[in-house]
Amino acid sequence: MSSCITEDQKILLQVVQMILNYLQEQQIGTKVVDYQSPDILKKKLDLSLPEEGVSLSELFGVIQSYLQYSTRTSSSNFFNLLFAGFQPEGLLSEMVTSVTNNTMHTYESSPVATLMEMALIDALNSMVGFDSGEGLMVTGGSNANAIAMLLARHKLLPETKHTGLGGSKLVAFISEQAHYSFLKAANLLGIGMENVVKVKTDRLGCMIPQELEAAIIQSLNDGKTPIFVGATAGTTVLGAFDPFPSIAQITRKYELWLHVDGAWGCPVLFSRKHKHLLAGSELADSFTWDAHKLMGVPLICSAILVKQKGTLSDACSSGDTDYLFHEDENAAYDLGRMSLQCGRKVDALKFWLSWKRHGKNGYEQRVDRLFELASYATEFIRTCKHLELMVQPQFLNICFRYIPDGVDPNTDVDRINLAIRKQLLQSGQAAINYAHYQGRIGIRLILANPEIHEAELNRLFHNIITTGKSCESVMKL
Ligand SMILES: *Cc1c(COP(=O)(O)O)cnc(C)c1O
């Protein structure tokens, strides 16, 4: 036994060293991805699953390949998604939760994590402005949005939980810039994707309240039952913040559930300078919080927050659980009663450690610094003759296009912008996404890593322009 532990220990220490080297490479600058096509990558990795198992040390090479071919989201060339960067406390907690391997359904199986999760939910509720709220960590913002829609349905039609939808024709409202997860939620809940109305937005991408009210009236006239409005704090493509106070007036008037999807924009609440963007969030009935995006906690780390206590267990409990949830002195600490999951990973430790390490002030600095980088990038694009903003940014999403020399910006430059972004990725120079807006395609720069410097943004723009010029000559625009 003891020699076996020694062997395992040796491997673990080697892997730790490998991870440290990986992080070191990142610091001195390396390709954001060693890009391979799926066919080639399949050949490089031996993915066959064996009859006979192998020793731990034989997994070493696989871990090495995993690190080599995975996209480096903490690289200073990573601008692709709504998260980026590395937090050592995240790594520590992933190790600890894996070693302890607890599940979150009952207090007795996860006493420490349960208390940490409850402390986090209280802290998040107070950020949002839910004075006596409740909440739960869930498997992503998408699922938080789905639970919010379920809560809305349950509030209006509680019997549906037992008898199903019957003939109800429910309608949900989101903006045309909202996240696709609301469509999936409508599918899952039997509401149907066609009964999600996408309300028009203004030129910044914010929901227009008058359009919302008109859409609600229309659905009432059509004999349907409006239940839910999903507003967004920081939309995925443009980073737009919907006007919550005006939307809340409407949801109150028609007695609809108001949800704020803060998956991307929620940490702006830490910033005294910028939190006005979320003014009125306390008027919502529920709120989606992702800590794995802008706060930099490793995926998955999300919560659904609810204004009124008791709502989650009312809507999500099922019965037939007495084998698990015992009516004892700790019953109020069995978070599984509020959850749609049975087994649930501990996501609280990494979040709690992160908050403890950075503090509210650290998060505030993080958000403010990213806003600074966003204005730097915006100003660069505004004054660069080869680049053009697609929309004035409100947040950390900068959508812009490369415009070839002497080309009228109204001509079709979609193809060249797509080519630029693909070439940057495949060469490992930068991971950056593209997006559609008003029938055009542009490059979507996301600033989520506060370790990035202005010089690195200069390098990115330089690479975009250089790549644009070389694509231009090949594509003969
Ligand atoms: C990313 C995102 C989501 C989905 O969150 P996940 O945690 O990735 O499931 C929902 N809404 C918005 C606005 C987002 O940007």
From TrEMBL:
Domain of life, per lineage: Bacteria
N6-(pyridoxal phosphate)lysine carried by residues: 293
UniProt keyword annotations, A-Z: Decarboxylase, Lyase, Pyridoxal phosphate
InterPro entries, sorted: PyrdxlP-dep_de-COase, PyrdxlP-dep_Trfase, PyrdxlP-dep_Trfase_major, Pyridoxal-P_BS
GO annotation, cellular component aspect: cytoplasm
GO biological process: carboxylic acid metabolic process
Cofactor(s) essential for the protein: pyridoxal 5'-phosphate
Coiled coil regions, renumbered to chain: none
Annotated GO MF terms: aromatic-L-amino-acid decarboxylase activity; pyridoxal phosphate binding
Record Gene3D superfamilies: 3.90.1150.170, Type I PLP-dependent aspartate aminotransferase-like (Major domain)
Family: Belongs to the group II decarboxylase family.
PANTHER family named among the record's database cross-references: CYSTEINE SULFINIC ACID DECARBOXYLASE, GLUTAMATE DECARBOXYLASE-RELATED
Protein name according to UniProt: Glutamate decarboxylase
Lineage summary: Bacteria, Bacillati, Cyanobacteriota, Cyanophyceae, Nostocales
